[in-house]
Amino acid sequence: MASPFAMCAGWGPELTFIYNEAYIDFLAARHSAALGQPIKEVWHDVWADIDPLIRRAMAGEEVHQTDMHLVMTRKGYAEDTYWTFAYSALREGEAVVGFLDIAIDTTAGVLAGQRRDAAEASLRELNATLEQQVAERTEERNRIWQVSRDMLVVAEPEGSWLSVNPAWTRVLGWSADELVGRTSEWIEHPDDRARSRAEAALLAQGHSTVNFENRFRTKAGDYRDLSWTAVMADNKIYATARDVTDEKVQAAVLADQALRLKLFGDVVQANKDPICVFDTDYRLTAFNQAHSDEFFRIFGHRVQVGEVFPDLFPPEQAPIMRGFMARALAGESYTVTEEFGDPDLAKPYWQVTYFPLRDPEGRLVGAFHHAKDIMDRLRAEAELATMQEALRQSQKMEAVGQLTGGLAHDFNNLLAVITGSLELLERRITQGRISELSRFAMSAQAAAKRATALTHRLLAFSRRQTLDPKPTGINQLIASMDELIRRTVGPSIEVEVAGAAGLWTTLVDPHQLDNALLNLCINSRDAMPDGGRLTIETANRWLDERAAKERDVPPGQYVSLAVTDTGCGMPPEVIAKAFDPFFTTKPIGQGTGLGLSMTYGFARQSGGQVRIYSEAGTGTSITIYLPRHYGDEVETDELSIRPPEPAEQGQTVLVVDDEPGVRMLVAEVLGELRYEVVEAEDGPSALKVLHSKARIDLLVTDVGLPGGMNGRQIADAARSLRPGLKVLFMTGYAENAVIGNGHLDPGMSVITKPFAVDIIANRIEEMITQPVK
């Protein structure tokens, strides 16, 4: 175990795998799960290669290998590795009971040799190419100018031609004397002149022209399609034109790729942006000075031809760069924005363009990498975003004013009913007029229930309601509501349901989705007072980055529920405010303005989104997007309210709440059921009871409590003292961050305030009597 040499062994009938500390680096991500496993499972990806060697060792043979090549996946991707090792049999008496492996990872040395050989070969090839180019440009320049099939031209920046090669005469029929001293406009197709002038203007600004096409007139009077490549250098325009009339599509692609490679030295070296070319093995084959200087500035390393480009980046950035390059080597042309650089320095943002490179036969030989520092542009965009955020904040405060005004109006109405009814109750009791009490009690209860419903709608809008998500099949949910929807919208409206076959499951609170769907159907009904058609449609949706960005959700798989009507529709200014709480276009008394805001809040809290598509006079379509859930849907039964059973003798409930009125209410309910009740106003006083020997069958606690402990912390402490203790949380709104993101442990449940007496009585009796699942 203390040996500096990496060793491992296989022991026993299953060749159980053990190893020393020096061997850990060989395992990478497989450590420490590999310890004690059969070696066949540990090295499953190279088992076909090493199994014969191990068999020889188990037969008593000494096995040696030098620089053996193995392809293995240890760090999340397949890699080439090389190993020198020796297998020896381990014996117990005369019997072979295992083997010992002393291993040396020679990958670095082997790969370094391969890289050195490749670099030397590339350098020899590059030197040969450069020598050939120098020779051609100095000794044979005039002959190339004469025999080139491409039409070559040198021109002044304003467009006057200085010289042309003989190819112009061969292709178009015009002599050099007829062309020199003139601009191209006199033989260019009239329809192409505007585009050509615009391209020339870009060329004068320092941009290069590649694969630009226009049409030139021949001396015989017809037109030929020409593909241009041009660059501004030494205050002159150097350009080549190729006749692509006969083989325009294929020839243009091949010519474009060939010219990119041919003109790399002339065009790219002058570019101030980092540019490089790499081959199909990710090795650098060429780069400009800006690329070399920028890489040295960021990472302190001068890149060399033949180096594996992604491996030059820090470990956390190398896989990202390899992924980008792999896309280009797979044939994709694209642009991506990425932040990379030295972690200890400022990381600039880069806009990087990739496109594949092919040889004249169309075979992919590498890819092109062009990086542009866009940090200044992003700073400007950030400043603009700051100003926009200030505007949004102003609009938000306006919306808050509308929200508080609507909230005060509705709650003041409800409080007037409640307080007035209670005052009349007190007065009638004093007067002895007991027969009239039920009318005022019912009025107060009805107003309180409406206040509860209003609170739930506000919590839904603000995504603070307590949800009970379950794997749900939306098609089945719609089917269960079909009769209710048709009764609600009335006979003058035709209801059509189009449920997608094979609809995915979604994790959602089915009761809240019921409410949302019914609200949308009621809105559609109100938009069609003279009748019409209501369509309910479901679908599986795969949202890519663009579609997800449009809907303000992460990319992925979603289930959509759309409600579409043929009603009056909404103008843009109404759509912009449709989700605002208390905003409504309905007459006073016919709508609260909370239906759509509640639907929006519920969808967002469920990880989804709501979108409106509408035009005035043509109808409205509102679509709810909910994330796909990988699991089977479950059947849920409605909770039936029944009289709870009295408690068994001695059963005790600990009630923790800082509000005396709530404690009194719960204690009164428990007392009627003949439970023993212990009350506590905060966490410390509750812990004193839990530390005592008092019998506690159920803990009922508020989530938000004073005294430094919340309800979840009390529950955790209670279960550490009394394992398996059942806990019922009470909450005024969604404190899921405390409860555990909505996922409670077995034997725990939650009830939302305010609650009906029968509801909490049934919940308490259910929790005490039923075993923990």
Report the radius of gyration as a whole number of Å. 39 Å
Largest sheet: 7 strands, mixed
CATH superfamily of the largest domain: Histidine kinase-like ATPase, C-terminal domain
- Count of distinct structural domains: 6
The helix tally amounts to 24
Top-tier CATH class of the largest domain: Alpha Beta
The backbone outline, from C-alpha atoms, is flat
**Overall average residue pLDDT:** 82
Q: How many strands in all?
A: 27
The structural class is: alpha+beta
Terminus-to-terminus distance: 47 Å
The helicity comes to: 40-55%
Beta-strand fraction estimate: 25-35%
List unreliable stretches of 5+ residues: 251-255, 460-464, 588-592, 636-642, 734-738
The CATH topology of the largest domain turns out to be Heat Shock Protein 90
Please identify, by name, the CATH architecture of the largest domain: 2-Layer Sandwich
